[in-house]
């Protein structure tokens, strides 16, 4: 991957004549963070560099919303990166913008394949990597990325060169990494807009893919969601609000953003409704709401400076001027987002530290399980033989109820529970406990009928089991009269060669078999329960004693 610095090019040349140079990244993003904030976020960046973002949920900002809500325009205004808007390519997949503080300037674009793809596809997609010097080239790069992902550029389901049907959307991620000495440490993500129903060129599968991508990002507990809603559509009809509520019911990490307020008729009921929404009086988020004005179609060639000036004029002269200044405009959104991100990261650091310690313990345990290097078949055989003997020794001790081995250690405060791994390790004790439960169950539910000896009083045990609605084998209660009728029925159908006034000796056996009918199912349930306990015992043992790749081949 060639560095832009090595080519003698700059990503951030100084604009001439006090005009913003189009296609380059200005210094506006530095307003997102103070020096203290950068120091805090440096910690998160170091974790990402270690690849821990694939293991832990790290703080990030996700711009989400429905189709045509103006998400990409929000991200573009926020970062001053000119995303292509006409062909809508940037909303066909998640776009992850990683801003990193490095000594040298560089800008690289690559594709991160979805983990559900085959190894061959993942390798092919990972090979895609481009370096650019000007954001004017971004549409071309994104077009190339769509081909690598297998996305239909025209949305009509056209096929790729290998005749595989192309999808309108992809679960792969376009990664744009911008490095430089003046860059803030920040990750921003733009995801495809939610689609309510299939249309021409968009299948039901595509609708499900977009929903899955959205859920994958907004469900992360350390993600700040910028929920974008368009003023051109009633907020109640925009499913993103219900989506973020599903994963953030208290609105603790969601900031609502209203776009296109200038398209509302001035003084209309719709305008009043969105003013109410902006005041956090309709859909409540603890982080509140913000309003920005996007470029109109006739302003598509505006520079960012012209765009910001038009927005400032609108909020100064429109009915939205009644809102506090800190709730309107892109500049105040940067400031607001900066503080939110800082506080969010600070609050997340203690729990993140615990998660890291836990992950470190797991990895160290896995590393210890690997043992010495095994480069020959003989060494592998020795290792497997040693592992087998150790597991056999523990299994025998567990079966015999001899718990001197360190594997069976249980803390004094630990409770005896079948959900506890330390409990399951003591297999003989667990099976004895299950046997006792089975004996009690057999005593209470092993008979088909309860017999009441009193004429007008049901048996006490019958009341007990009738209240146990979850037991499918609960005995049926019979009154004295019903009990006699049952025995008489069995007596009539069992008559044989016996003299009149006597009964067939086999009657006792038939009554017993009928009364003990539940035994078989209760016994089967008990055997299955013990079998599952043994499986859990072995699975836990291998988890503790064998590396992941070995236990995957054994169990």
TrEMBL record:
InterPro entries assigned to the protein according to its UniProt record, in alphabetical order: Dynamin, Dynamin_GTPase, Dynamin_N, Dynamin_stalk, G_DYNAMIN_dom, P-loop_NTPase
Region annotation Disordered: where it falls in the sequence: 1-32, 457-477
GO molecular function: GTP binding; GTPase activity; microtubule binding
Pfam families per the UniProt record, alphabetical: Dynamin_M, Dynamin_N
Cellular-component GO terms for this entry: membrane; microtubule; mitochondrion
Comp. bias intervals (Polar residues): 464-476
PROSITE patterns associated with the record: G_DYNAMIN_2 (PS51718)
One biological process term in Gene Ontology: intracellular distribution of mitochondria
Keyword vocabulary terms for this entry: GTP-binding, Nucleotide-binding
Residue ranges annotated for the Dynamin-type G domain, each copy included: 55-350
Protein name: Interferon-induced GTP-binding protein Mx
Organism of derivation: Colletotrichum spinosum
UniProt lineage: Eukaryota, Fungi, Dikarya, Ascomycota, Pezizomycotina
């Amino acid at each position: 991957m060639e560095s832009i610095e090595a080519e003698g090019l700059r990503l951030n040349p100084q604009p001439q004549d006090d005009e913003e140079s189009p296609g380059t990244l200005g210094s506006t993003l530095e307003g997102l963070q103070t020096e203290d904030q950068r120091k805090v976020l440096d910690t998160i960046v170091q974790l990402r560099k270690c690849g821990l973002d694939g293991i832990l949920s790290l703080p990030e900002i996700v711009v989400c919303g429905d189709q045509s809500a103006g998400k990409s325009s929000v991200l573009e205004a926020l970062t001053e990166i000119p995303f292509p808007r006409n062909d809508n390519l940037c909303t066909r997949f998640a776009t992850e913008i990683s801003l990193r503080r490095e000594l040298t300037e560089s800008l690289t674009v690559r594709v991160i394949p979805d983990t559900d793809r085959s190894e061959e596809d993942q390798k092919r997609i990972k090979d895609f990597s481009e370096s650019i010097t000007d954001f004017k080239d971004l549409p071309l790069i994104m077009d190339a990325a769509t081909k690598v992902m297998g996305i239909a550029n025209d949305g009509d389901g056209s096929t790729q060169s290998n005749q595989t049907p192309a999808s309108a959307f992809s679960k792969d991620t376009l990664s744009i990494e911008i490095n430089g000495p003046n860059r803030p440490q920040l990750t921003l993500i733009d995801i495809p807009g939610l689609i309510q129903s299939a249309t021409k060129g968009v299948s039901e599968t595509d609708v499900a893919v977009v929903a899955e991508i959205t859920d994958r990002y907004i469900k992360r507990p350390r993600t700040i969601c910028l929920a974008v809603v368009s003023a051109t559509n009633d907020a109640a009809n925009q499913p993103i609000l219900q989506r973020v509520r599903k994963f953030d019911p208290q609105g603790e990490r969601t900031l609502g953003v209203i776009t296109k307020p200038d398209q509302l008729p001035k003084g209309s009921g719709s305008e009043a409704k969105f003013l109410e929404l902006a005041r956090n009086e309709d859909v409540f988020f603890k982080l509140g709401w913000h309003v920005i004005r996007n470029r109109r179609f006739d302003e598509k060639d505006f520079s960012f400076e012209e765009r910001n000036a038009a927005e400032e004029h609108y909020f100064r002269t429109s009915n939205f001027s009644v809102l506090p200044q800190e709730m309107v405009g892109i500049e105040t959104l940067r400031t607001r987002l900066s503080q939110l991100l800082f506080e969010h990261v600070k609050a997340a650091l203690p729990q993140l530290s615990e998660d890291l310690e836990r992950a470190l313990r797991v990895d160290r345990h896995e590393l210890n399980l690997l043992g010495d290097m095994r480069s020959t078949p003989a060494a592998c055989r020795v290792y497997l033989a040693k592992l087998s003997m150790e597991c056999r020794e523990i299994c025998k001790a567990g079966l015999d109820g001899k718990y001197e081995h360190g594997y069976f250690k249980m803390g004094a405060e630990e409770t005896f529970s079948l959900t506890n791994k330390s409990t399951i390790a003591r297999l003989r004790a667990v099976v004895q406990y299950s046997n006792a439960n089975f004996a009690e169950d057999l005593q209470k539910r092993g008979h088909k009928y309860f017999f009441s000896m009193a004429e007008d009083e049901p048996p006490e045990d019958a009341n007990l089991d009738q209240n146990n609605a979850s037991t499918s084998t609960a005995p049926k209660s019979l009154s004295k009269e019903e009990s006699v009728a049952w025995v008489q029925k069995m007596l009539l159908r069992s008559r044989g060669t016996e003299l009149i006034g006597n009964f067939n000796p086999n009657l006792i056996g038939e009554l017993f078999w009928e009364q003990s009918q539940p035994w078989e199912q209760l016994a089967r349930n008990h055997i299955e329960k013990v079998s599952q306990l043994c499986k859990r015992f072995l699975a836990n043992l291998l988890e503790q004693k064998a590396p992941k790749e070995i236990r995957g081949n054994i169990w």
